[in-house]
Amino acid sequence: MAASRSIIISGAGIAGLTAALALSKRGYRIEIHERAERIETAGAGIQLSPNALRVFDKLNVLDAVKRVAMSPDGVRILSAGSARQIRTVPLGASAIERHGIGYLTIHRSELSQALLSACNEDPDITLHTASAVSDAVNHPNGISAMVTSATRVNTHRGAMMIFADGIHSAGRAEAFAMPGAVHSGFEAWRGMIPADALPPGFDLENTQLIWGRGAHAVLYPVRKGRYLNAVICIRSRDRSLRLPRKGDFGELLDSLRRWHPSLRQLFELVREWPVWPLLEMPQKGPWHHGRMALIGDAAHGMLPFAAQGAAMGIEDAEVLAAMVERHGTSEAALAAWEALRRKRVRKVVALARQNGRIYHMGWPFSMARNLVLAISSPRNLAERQAWIYDWKP
Ligand SMILES: Cc1cc2nc3c(=O)[nH]c(=O)nc-3n(C[C@H](O)[C@H](O)[C@H](O)COP(=O)(O)OP(=O)(O)OC[C@H]3O[C@@H](n4cnc5c(N)ncnc54)[C@H](O)[C@@H]3O)c2cc1C
Question: Which of 159, 202, 233, 295 could form a disulfide with 316 if both were Cys (CB 3.0 to 4.6 A apart)?
Fold first, then answer.
């Protein structure tokens, strides 16, 4: 295949693997370089909304994802202090009826595996592990990437370079010379509870979103209901960017001291709490430069409070491939892609921040919030997300 049809991707995360599939489908040959020795993802879950699932459908990976995913009936919003339900927002069958496609929860390693299997089956995609891209430069007709594997540094040439190398992107720092992620002031405690350890009658049919002052938790089933994934987002006492660190449960309990005892007891069932700093990418600066692009968290890492970070990377990948199909591996393709993505991503970043303010309200604002919610119809609450979920590739 001619060099003009060869594209290099740095990073085999959700965005990088999706971009490889989307570009290969358009007739390009893809070389993915992944720094890690093996594609392993943190032991945590992820929610996949209809906008992301439509891309997977188009790339023929939706069935593989569905086979291992769960489809919660809805989101039950609970108050942290009383553990009482404030409202339920319907998902499941209702999401299928409204959006023509569901809303799924899945363990990250199972999602990676589904994407990776599709890449492995594709003769036009080659994945190199233990292979880190440290920098890249533009040429009149393409790019050169500096790739380090074992002890060797090689230069690889391609028609286009896509940095999907995550929140600590080397591409962003070196090839784009742009500032990296900053601490949001929040951190996420992530744990897994085996389903057989849960109290009798525990609701595994719904996602549970628990709102407390300055903190919230999200609980949902993964691994076909064998585990409950728990994420607790609290204000961070530590501003280090490069964790995860090992969480001290006593510290967590102290932060959740006003939470209902039944919730605190539930969290006792988690054996290990890795703690992740929640980082945000500065919004200024381009996402493309010549024939190089930043996608996913490398471009717009955001707070996870709208559960849309990965979904935006998945959308980036599909739109970028569509623009390359239309304009070839040119700067014009990337300029058109960025123009299509900027406004939507900015709106989602703002929504994630706004959700944080709503979830974390203290009394008396929380009382007013709960009242408004209690008189809103579940359908209207679901419609609040429609502009995100209605997106089509
Ligand atoms: C607590 C929490 C909950 C979340 N929940 C959701 C959710 O429910 N739904 C949702 O859509 N999003 C969610 N997100 C966001 C989502 O996890 C991220 O947006 C997404 O994983 C980013 O994918 P990515 O492919 O851009 O980057 P990454 O997943 O970080 O992948 C980057 C890859 O690049 C590799 N790499 C790094 N440097 C190099 C290099 N120099 N050379 C080669 N390879 C390199 C890394 O090893 C990695 O494999 C959540 C985030 C957090 C923190």
Answer: 295
More confident residue, 354 or 141: 354
Which DSSP symbol is given to 13?
S
Pairwise pLDDT comparison (77 vs 41), residue with the higher score: 77
Percent of the chain with pLDDT over 70: 98
Class of 3-71+104-181+281-357 in CATH: alpha beta
What confidence tier does 1 reach under pLDDT thresholds 50, 70, 90? very low
CATH 3.30.9.30 for domain 183-279+359-389? yes
Cα–Cα distances in angstroms (integers) from residue 374 to residues 70, 214, 364, 386, in the given order: 27, 21, 16, 20
Residue among 128, 135, 154, 165 whose CB has most ligand 1 atoms within 8 A, to mutate: 165
Cis ω before 364 (30° cut-off from 0): yes
Cα gap 259→214, rounded to integer Å = 11
Longest dimension (CA), the chain: 65
Instruction: Assess contact for 323 and 340: CB atoms under 8 A.
Output: yes
Mean of pLDDT values over 31-58: 92
- Atom index in ligand 1 nearest the CA of residue 297 equals 26
Tell me whether residue 271 is exposed, middle or buried, using C-beta atoms within 10 angstroms of its C-beta: 0 to 12, 13 to 18, 19 or more. Answer: exposed
What ranges do the domains of the chain cover?
Answer: 3-71+104-181+281-357, 183-279+359-389
What pLDDT sits at residue 244? 82
Q: How wide is the angle at C-alpha 320 spanned by C-alphas 181 and 313, nearest 5°?
A: 40
Q: Which residues contact 126 (CB under 8 A, 6 or more apart)?
A: 30, 31, 32
Q: For the segment 224-261, what is each residue's pLDDT rounded down to a tens digit? A: 899 999 999 999 988 888 778 899 999 999 999 999 99
308 lines ligand 1 (CB under 6 A): yes
Query: 2 C-alpha to center of ligand 1: Å?
Result: 31
